[in-house]
Amino acid sequence: MAASRRSEFIREVAELVQNLQQQRDRDVDTVLGELTENAARAMPGAQYAGITVATRNGKVRTASATHRYAELLDEIQQHSDQGPCLSAAWEHHIMRINDLTRERRWPAYCREAAEETPIRSIMSFQLFTDHHSMAALNFYAEQPNAFDDEAAELGLILATHTALAWNMFRRDEQFRSALASRDIIGQAKGMIMERFKIDAVQAFELLKRLSQSSNTPLAVVAREMVQAEHPADDRDRARGV
Question: Do residues 70 and 33 make contact, with C-beta atoms less than 8 angstroms apart?
Answer without folding.
Answer: no
